[in-house]
Design goal:
Layout lengths: L1 E7 L5 E6 L2 E4 H6 L14 H7 L3 H15 L7 E3 L3 E4 L8 E5 L3 H7 L8 E5 L4 E2 L4 E4 L6 E2 L2 E7 L15 E8 L2 E2 H7 L12 E8 L1 H4 L6 E6 L2 E7 L7 H9 L9 E3 L21 E6 L4 E8 L4
Parallel strand pairs: 6-17, 8-14, 9-19
Antiparallel strand pairs: 1-2, 1-5, 1-14, 2-3, 3-4, 6-7, 10-13, 11-12, 11-17, 12-14, 15-16, 15-18, 18-19
């Protein structure tokens, strides 16, 4: 199942189900009375939906099944993809928790030691942007870089989650790019400000639920700039697995529905290319993890807006 946030015409943003070339408007379908959902079911955003009912994903799967099997003729609840605006699948999580140095290849390319424990830092939710939207290069930033990552979206509240139980807390996965101002990162000697400028967290184009993703380790992760491949690896190159990360993070931090864990990036970032390469106005960045679609963004200089 692929979930999206979308905006049609002048309507408010709402939750949809991506069905190839169309989007099933969940709220409109519920309003027809053809599908029953609990009263508290909230379709205003995916994070609100996840928080409103612990069985939200199971209910959505049942909605999908019933619609496809019985109500596929109800075209009034469908929107063609090409006439709607896709928004980030998660817009205001309570937190974005990022993991540094979590791919063997990324450690090797910079001569860094393999971490003994996950290295965590924060990225602010105001940095989130969506597919086909610009990444704004601030005038103060001279060395802008990109980092393709797998985002894990948390589905329910949890603390001190064991590795064996981690899968129960995952709503799905999405493409993520940890855009970074390298000059700010190096001058600050910490990572938060350099990675939290507005638009520095592209996410999307949709949230894909775990049963559709399958074996994560076999998936490729890629990032291209102007169709030139910069990063090309596999999720299996991670140092700390997703269950290990969830256990480590939740030992001290309560995870909430809609929270994002950005799980690190493989080799190929601009900073460690020879010579180093950085993003400029007009560059087109494509972030792709197998089975999660393609997240595309373009760079715009702040002063040109």
């Amino acid at each position: 199942m692929r979930l999206v946030m979308f905006q049609a015409k002048k309507q408010k943003a709402r939750v949809g189900m991506y069905l190839e070339d169309t989007i099933l408007d969940i709220k409109s379908l519920i309003e027809t009375g053809a599908i029953y959902v609990p009263e508290e079911f909230n379709c205003d955003s995916i994070e609100k939906l996840l928080a409103s009912n612990p069985d939200a994903l199971s209910i959505l799967k049942q909605i999908e099944k019933e619609y496809l099997n019985k109500n596929s003729s109800m075209t009034n609840v469908l929107w063609p993809v090409d006439i709607v605006k896709l928004l980030p699948p998660i817009t205001r999580p309570s937190k974005i928790i990022c993991v540094g140095l979590n791919y063997h290849s990324h450690c090797f390319e910079q001569g860094a030691k393999i971490p003994e424990y996950p290295i965590l830092f924060a990225k602010y939710s105001s940095a989130i942007t969506g597919d086909s939207l610009p990444i704004i290069k601030p005038a103060v930033v001279k060395k802008l870089d990109c980092e393709a990552e797998l985002a894990v979206i948390i589905g329910q509240q949890g603390k001190r989650i064991l590795k064996a139980d981690a899968s129960k807390y995952i709503a799905g996965y999405a493409n993520f790019n940890d855009i970074t101002a390298r000059d700010i990162q190096l001058s600050d000697r910490q990572w938060v400000r350099s990675k939290s400028f507005d638009t520095f967290a592209p996410l999307g184009p949709f949230l894909v639920t775990p049963e559709e993703v399958g074996d994560l380790g076999s998936l490729y992760i890629r990032c291209s700039v102007n169709d030139e491949l910069w990063q090309d690896s596999y999720i299996s190159d991670m140092i700390f697995t997703i269950p290990e990360l969830i256990e480590f993070i939740s030992e001290n931090i309560t995870l909430m529905p809609g929270d994002i864990i950005a799980t690190g990036t493989p080799a190929g970032v601009g900073l460690f290319q020879k010579p180093p390469r950085f993003l400029k106005h007009g560059d087109v960045i494509k972030t792709e993890i197998q089975g999660l679609g393609v997240l595309q963004n373009h760079v715009i200089e702040e002063e040109t807006i």
